[in-house]
Amino acid sequence: MRDFFTYQVGFSCQEEESMAQQRSIRAEGPTGVGRWRGRAAGLASLFLFAFALVVGNEVQAQETGQITGQVTAAETMGPLAQVQVLVAGTGLGTLTNAEGNFTIENVPAGTHEIRAERIGYGTATEEVTVGAGETVTVELSMAREALGLDAVVVTGTAGAARRREIGNTISQINVDDIADRPLQTTDILAAAAPGVEVSRAGGEVGQGSRIQLRGQNSLSMSNQPIIYIDGIRMMSGALPMTASPDYRAGRGANVTSSPLDQLNPNDIDRIEIIKGSAATTLYGTEASAGVIQVFTKSGASGAPEWTVETQQGTAWSREFGVSGSEQIEPGANYNYMGPYMRSDPFGFGEGDWGTVWNQHYSASVRGGGEDLQYFVSGSLEDQTGVMPLDRSERWAVRGNFTFTPLDDLQLQWNTSWSNNWMRNTPTGNNAQGLTLNVFRQERNYFGTGDFDQIIQVLDWDIQQEIERFATGGTMTYTPLASLTNRLTVGYDFIQQEARNLRPFGFVAFPQGGLLNNTYQERLITVDYVGTYNFDITSDISSAFSWGGQAVGEEQRTVEAWGEDFPGATHPTVNSAANTLGFEEREQVWTAGFFLQNVLDFHDRYFFTIGTRVDGNSAFGTDFGLQVYPKFSGSWVVSDEDFWGDWGQMRLRGAWGQSGRAPGTFDAVRTWNPLSIAGEPAFVPQNVGNPDLGPEVSTEWEVGFETSWMQDRIQSEVTYFHQTTSDALLNMPQIASMGFTSSQQMNIGELQNEGLEVGLQASPVQTPDWGWDVGLNLTWQKNEITDLGDLPSTNTIDEGLPIRPMVTWLVTNPDEIAQPEFEANHFYGPTHPTRIFSGNTTLRLPGGVSLSARGEYQGGHYVSSGVFSIGRSVRSPLCFPHYVDPLNDI
């Protein structure tokens, strides 16, 4: 068993300027090289900045005054930043700076209501009278709403709903409340909420993270949640790893990047997470693993507010291998990798290849007038990694605009572009790469551990470039106060070009080889929601919603391979004597409609019932449509007369269904084209299944939220139980039919259950000092309850969780004797069953804060390869079990 512990520490200092610079030391790395695309992006960013500034500086020619003031927290009397301060009914407003100060200019003379709003705090109001040419000063105090029951939630709801109305748990992450400043968007999710698992496969520059919510609820399909940005669906999984024809089966040398990490984290306002089928019914097919929605920042009425930020940091590799191996053989503590690694400038870690340094620069401006608000940003991230060739450079620009041409019509348009160039070291399970040959030393593919021999593999040039463009608009039309219509149309495009060159004369491939792989994914989102609110009686109201959604996803892969170069210095595929070409295309559409009604009794009892009907182009031709029902309830106990001043409490429960579609061609009979004796031919490939449908996850959850001791302590507890029926499993086919590959069928069943606990406390709250502590606990387990007619294998078996199983296990590893074996030994689950995470922030006088967060994952098993025994390789991992380590005895 191996448990994992990760940690992150940060230091931030808020300057007195409104643009609040923050710096942090983090275990991330790298610096890159300037490129023409970066320059173009920078010019585009400056153009957008100039445009926004011109728009924001429009001034009405009339007799006006000015309102200034400060917003503070009621509990601490300390300043509150990023508070939206509005002049009601005028469209004028602004955001407070780091000291809580604000200024609103060009306020028409007269009496106005000033409103202050911020997520997590109750609205504060003040009435003021402004005279022409006068400046009025206002002091506003905002009380924290521990549970945020009146905060508006969008994800998983029809349109928008207050938190108190929702029967399922939902996690909201307000980025302004995060003390440290993550460089990657996925880092925002790490240790942020119970039930959220974020793990990274490696430490190379650009390596993406896997995100799972509430463990596993599928055996053969993806367990990653679907992701939306500002209502637009984006690619959810990792970008593909590429490998040349002589290195197929996942043995490529590049990393698998996350599309989510192409987003600039400084552009994010908040993130909403819903974790299971009880909450994702309205998203239908593809949503059984949960939904994450990212909301980027929007404009604000008022003068332009500029923010400029920089982060500088370094990284080093923690010792890996077997501790104490240095006493047996020099260099073994890092599995001999020490001379090939970069270190940091402070002397931590080990490395002779240079220094790791990373830097991040970001600038943005937001502002606008009564009818048009804007947010425009640009960023540059420059990294150098621990591995000798790892480098990365990423540029990103964004423009978000809100236009209100009529009182009942609002238009929002959000657009972003990013470009990420990376160069990586040849690593991984790669016979011609660096790490495998270094680890094996003289028993590697060169027969020597000599540094000068192995270092030649760094002539292998591995580069990839990721470009992402997303644009979309949302129109909200409210012809009546009780009727709202919202239409969202969006387009998300991502492209990865991987170029993998072993030049002519390469030590392990002298003839030379070049792979160029271009992968593209496009998603189109069309989403409409209508909501009509009406009163049934004086104490009972109803919100009836209807709508439809269509998502189209298209993937294209074009690949070219060439080998045997005539010695070209800068070869292309056409330079090679032998070339091959490959192309793959697939397209899937999912469309459905839903109905939902929310009944509100006395604004403290809420009941929701709804259903979604879905169709998917990957369903079998005989399957038809899939129906996903839901219902939920919420009771705000603390609003009852008997509760008194004991704080806040809400009880909630939900039941619902959602699904996961089969693969694009799983339901279709397909044939594999090939050439026989120079003539075109084809052979059977996939038998097809016209009855194939989605696997359906049914979930119920119950829980409560509380706050007490004047909201200094908050808690959230949720128990969930999922059952995945009609689970998609690969069924072996009868060979005599001619189709030898397995066929997916809806025959399995899984169960998944768990308990999630979140605690937040603020023991110290004063104007100059503060201390916040958070703790998240997650316990979860899954079990395979039915395999249908599929026989048990070494990875799946009824009555057991998804786990690793070995055919043979040595039962006497501590004995110097002939090994004794046990057949089919069961280890345990492959995913964490226990996740503990914590965070703490200490706020000091002068705007200085110290923060730290960490996470522990355990209760699961990972497979540590035993190739050292099976392939006669001398490895430091086995030194404790050798009698004579230098001779493998």
Any overview of this molecule?
The protein has about 900 residues and is mainly beta. It has a 20-stranded antiparallel β-sheet. The chain is globular and about 85 Å long.
State the end-to-end CA separation.
Answer: 26 Å
Report the sheet with the most strands, covering strand number, pairing sense and barrel closure. 20 strands, antiparallel
- Gyration radius (Cα, Å) is 29 Å
Could you name the ranges where pLDDT drops below 50 across 5 or more consecutive residues?
1-61
Count every helix, treating DSSP H or I runs of 4 or more residues as helices: 6
**Judging from the principal axes of the Cα atoms, what is the shape?**
globular
How large is the share of residues in beta strands? over 45%
Helix content: under 10%
Mean pLDDT: 83
Q: Briefly note the structural class of the backbone.
A: mainly beta
Tally of extended strands? Answer: 40
List keywords for this structure.
889 residues, mainly beta, 20-stranded antiparallel sheet, 5-stranded mixed sheet, 6 helices
Blueprint of the fold:
Blueprint: E1 4-13, H1 36-56, E2 64-73, E3 84-87, E4 92-95, E5 101-108, E6 110-117, E7 124-130, E8 135-142, E9 152-153, E10 161-162, E11 171-174, H2 185-189, E12 196-200, E13 209-213, E14 226-229, E15 232-234, E16 268-274, H3 277-280, E17 291-296, E18 302-313, E19 358-368, E20 372-384, E21 391-406, E22 409-424, H4 434-440, H5 451-454, E23 461-480, E24 483-502, E25 513-535, E26 540-563, E27 578-601, E28 605-616, E29 626-636, E30 648-660, E31 670-676, E32 679-686, E33 695-708, E34 713-731, E35 743-765, E36 770-786, E37 805-810, E38 821-826, E39 834-844, E40 848-858, H6 867-870
Parallel strand pairs: 2-8, 14-17
Antiparallel strand pairs: 1-40, 2-5, 3-4, 3-6, 6-7, 9-10, 11-16, 12-13, 14-15, 16-17, 18-19, 19-20, 20-21, 21-22, 22-23, 23-24, 24-25, 25-26, 26-27, 27-28, 28-29, 29-30, 30-33, 31-32, 33-34, 34-35, 35-36, 36-39, 37-38, 39-40
